[in-house]
Write the C-alpha cells for this entry.
Amino acid sequence: MSKMTNYKMHDGMKQKVLVTGGTGYIGSHTVVELQAAGYEVVVVDNLSNSNADVIDNIEKVSGIRPAFEKVDCLDYAGLESVFAKHGGFQAIIHFAASKAVGESVQKPLLYYRNNIVSLINLLELMPKYGVGGIVFSSSCTVYGQPDELPVTEDAPIKKAESPYGNTKQINEEIIRDTVASGAPINAILLRYFNPIGAHPTALLGELPNGVPQNLVPYLTQTAIGIREKLSVFGDDYNTPDGSCVRDFINVVDLAKAHVVAIDRILRGGQKEKVEVFNIGTGKGVSVLELIHAFEKATGVKLNYQIVGRRAGDIEKVWANPERANTELGWKAGTSLEDTLLSAWNWQLKLRERGIQ
Ligand code: UD1
C-alpha cells in the first residue's frame, strides 16, 4: 500500500469525511473528488437550495453512492444524530450556508442565524465526537477592495460590504477563537475567489434558484435563451476595459483544493492549527473578457448590454495563490475556455433534462 493511501485508511477502513452542504454546487464537486481520493463521504444537506437527485448524479460520476442525511445544520439534535449514527468522522468540510449577497441585505437575521449557528453547532459537536479537523468555505469577500493586487492572505480584512460577507468574517473569527481556547481542532480556511464551470461529465453543476445573481449562470441562461440579455454592470471602472475584474476559478480545481486541505490536516502537515489559503488562479479576467472568451470557446454569440454599476461591487480582485501552490501543492489547472465550455455543456444538459 502506498504512503498516500495509508493515511486515508483507519484501522483498515476508509477515512470518513462529513460534508455539510454536499448537494450544493461546490459541495457536490468536492464529494466526488474526495471519493476519487479514497475517502468515504457522508453528506448532510437540508436541500434548501439543492435537490436530492444530486446524490444520484454523484454516484453516476464516482461510481460510489455517498451516505446522505437530510438534516439542517441549525438543528443541533439532528446534526448530533448524524455524528452518532455514522461515527468516526476524521474531518468535516463545512459548505452549508446561505450565499446570496443581495438577499443577505434584505434578510440579515436569516443569514446570521443560518451561517453562524450552523458552524457553532459543528464546533460544539466536533470535540464531543472526537472529530479533529475542519475545512471551512470562506471567500475573498473578506478582503473587500484590496489595496494591493494580487491579494495575499496577509492583506487586512476590510469592513464587510454585506451581511453575507460579514458571516464569512465572523465565522473565520469563531474558528480562530475556538481553536485558541484549546479546543482539539485543526482548521483550514479556504478563501475562494469566483467559482465557475461545471463537472466535465455535465452531471454536476450550478443550479441557481430563480433569476441568477452571479455572472456565469446568468450568461449561460442568456446564451440558451432563458434570459433575453446579459447586463454588464458598469464599464467605467478603473480597469483596462472598464468592466470589473475577477479571478474565476474552475469548480473542479476548487473541489480538489478541499481534498489536499483534508489530506494536510489528517497527516498532521499543518504549520499552524488554523491556516488560511487563497484559492484562485492568480489571473484577473474582466467581465467583458469573460464574455468574449465564452463566445470564442462555444461559438455562441451572446446578447449583452452595458448598464450602470451594481451597488456593492468590488472594482477588481484577484488572488496571489502562491501559499496554496507551495504549501498545499495545489494549483488551478483548467483553462478559462474549458471552464466556460463546461458551464455551457451543463446548461445544455439542463435543457435536455427539462430542468431549465
Ligand atoms: C459575490 C461575492 C462573493 C460570493 C459570490 C457568490 C462580494 C464582493 N462577492 O461575488 O463573496 O462568494 O458572489 O455568490 O460580495 N455581473 C454582471 N452581470 C450580471 C452578474 C454579474 O456584469 O448579471 C458582474 C458583477 O458586476 C461582477 C462580476 O460580474 O463584476 C461577478 O459577479 P458575481 O458572479 O455576482 O460575483 P461577485 O459579486 O464577484
